[in-house]
Amino acid sequence: MQPPKAVGWSPNHSALRILDQRLLPGVELERDLVSLEDTMDAIRTLAVRGAPAIGVAAAIGLAVALRRDSGGDGTKARHLLTEYAPRLAATRPTAVNLTWAVHRMQQAVEAVRNDDLLAALAREAEAIRSEDVRMCEQIGEHGLAIIPDGARVLTHCNAGALATAGIGTALAPLYAAHARGRALTVYADETRPLRQGARLTAWELVRAGINVSVLPDGAAASLIGQGLVDLVIVGADRITANGDVANKIGTYGVALAAHAHGVPFYVAAPWSTIDVATPTGAHIVIEHRQADELGELPALVPAWNPAFDVTPRALVRGYLTDRGFVDPPFLGDRESV
Which helix (H) or strand (E) holds 97? Predict the structure, then answer.
């Protein structure tokens, strides 16, 4: 079975089409979004999630909303772009692909005549989507080097097809290895509080025929300590110039356990996730989410619910990108491909 398609165009390119991940695994519902508010809400509420998928959704959603709201008038669309772009970019602060995609859309029309502006926006959005698909395939190919036959792999959160427009980042090498007939055992951390590992990673891997088991987040260190994990591979929402990694909350603890037991810890992400403008993890703005995501709490008890944590560079064995394995410090142009 083919990996699920999380984000893209509707068939006639009149809307942003997403697979609503809030309803998985029980319900597979595709939604077509046409307004900027709907796109922002989908990103904010995690109907679409994962740094690459957020970037693709932002680009397509922006192009669709500007065409609709301008009535096809390029001059009006250019004016609306100055309002819409910063609003969209501010929807979630930690994932760098969101601001990266919005910035690319703005740059794409800087020297474009108003009568070609809407077409140029649509072309750039499609370029971002198609590049994401190709990026995933390249990560998968490069990552085959670390996925031998019989590999036992631990992953945290979801960095698969549901987090991209293609086959994923951290899961791309697993899909590539599976396609070549290599036996795999995958352990997916549940990933509290929203259970992206249990709901999403396990769902997409089992439908692809890959052997996967779910474990509580708190059991990951014990699993590693018992020698049942050969490597850990996770995605990233932002990688800083020095190599620190922002990823789903709980990643740091997994990295510490892997380091303590000599298990290699890899990060897989597109080159666009490397933020050379952010020196270290200490400079990353960490998104905090609502208390109700933690479940029912006693009255008057506050919650500390960060969506991400930062794993220091010293705990990372390797950085797997669409350019292959790369090493920090990252000083180049992350927009060049």
Answer: helix 96-108
End-to-end CA distance of the chain: 30
Tell me, what DSSP letter sits at residue 200?
I
Token pair listed for 251: 């990643």
pLDDT of residue 336: 38
Domain range enclosing 114: 7-136
The domain boundary residue, chosen from 84, 111, 136? 136
Each residue of 296-319: pLDDT tens digit?
999 999 999 999 999 999 999 999
Decide: 262 and 298 in contact? Cβ < 8 Å: no
CA-derived radius of gyration, the chain: 19
Residues of the chain with pLDDT under 70: 332-337
Locus of tokens 């631990």: 154
Q: What is the DSSP string of 210-278?
A: --EEEE-GGGHHHHHHTT--SEEEE--SEEETT--EEEETTHHHHHHHHHHTT--EEEE--GGGEETT-
Q: Read off the CATH number of the domain in which 297 is found.
A: 3.40.50.10470
**Alpha helix (H) residue ranges in 109-234:** 117-143, 172-179, 196, 202-207, 220-225
Model pLDDT for residues 252-299, shown as the tens digit of each residue: 999 999 999 999 999 999 999 999 999 999 999 999 999 999 999 999
Return the residue matching tokens 């609709």. 68
Active-site positions read: 237
**Residue 66: Cβ within 10 Å count:** 26
Q: How many domains in the chain?
A: 2
Q: Is 332 within a domain?
A: no
Signed CA dihedral, 106, 107, 108, 114: sign only: positive
Q: Are 45 and 89 in contact (CB under 8 A)?
A: no
Owner of token pair 């510490």: 256
Same domain, yes or no: 228 and 168: yes
Residues 48 and 124: their CA atoms lie apart, in Å, by: 20
Looking at residue 73, its amino acid is: D
Task: Tell me how far apart the alpha carbons of residues 203 and 27 are, in angstroms, rounded to a whole number.
Answer: 11
**What 3-state DSSP class applies to 34?**
coil
Q: pTM of the full predicted structure? A: 0.93
